[in-house]
């Protein structure tokens, strides 16, 4: 029997409330919040841009994907930025293609990650918490 939600929906949710959701980047500050709400299984994927990186994480009963993982490489020289962006895009499109190939996936959400909260500056130390927001831009 499905759990009753305290939230009142104007239309039925896209996936059942007790569904298994793949949350990418769950070891980060922002993505650590959704796994606290339900079933949790940690799957390590060392290089998200490698084809097949999502095979283990996308089990047959995954109903939705919350794509929150992103690059946190803070030590890029200007000439390395384009390559890093390409790596992030490959990881995202690999996940999108893998989700598309699984008929159980009914919902896919691309979310923000740490850069919405803070843009690091060389030599500036700051603590990032759930209350931090990037006010600079």
Automatic annotation (TrEMBL):
<dbReference type="InterPro" id="IPR036291">
    <property type="entry name" value="NAD(P)-bd_dom_sf"/>
</dbReference>
<protein>
    <submittedName>
        <fullName>Uncharacterized protein</fullName>
    </submittedName>
</protein>
